[in-house]
Write a sequence for this structure.
């Protein structure tokens, strides 16, 4: 790698981090990979320390990158479900490697 600024359009690592850079985004993707379909409230319940504002922002960012699909169902109250898209599923091997690394290297309780 040459010295100089890293261009996210050229550097694959920089591009990936620019698309999925937030700490919560990886966790949300992992949750959807494991649970397949999740409603907003279910995600919030599994991530109690995330604020509603941040969760909404992270879900919107993942949806805008076509990593997750948001589907609204009419009703009172309306229901919204989130699933991984085909593009999101391509991150599953990375998520599995991250989980394996975390299992191996996290502090023992």
């Amino acid at each position: 790698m040459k010295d100089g600024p890293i261009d996210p359009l050229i550097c694959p690592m920089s591009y990936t981090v620019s698309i999925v850079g937030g700490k919560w985004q990886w966790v949300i993707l992992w949750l959807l990979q494991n649970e397949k379909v999740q409603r907003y409230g279910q995600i919030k319940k599994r991530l109690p320390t995330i604020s509603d504002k941040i969760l909404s922002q992270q879900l919107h960012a993942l949806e805008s990158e076509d990593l997750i699909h948001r589907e609204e169902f009419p009703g009172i109250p309306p229901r919204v479900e989130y699933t991984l898209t085909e593009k999101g599923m391509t991150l599953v091997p990375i998520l599995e490697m991250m989980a394996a690394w975390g299992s191996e290297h996290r502090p023992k309780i």
About this structure: The mean pLDDT is 91.
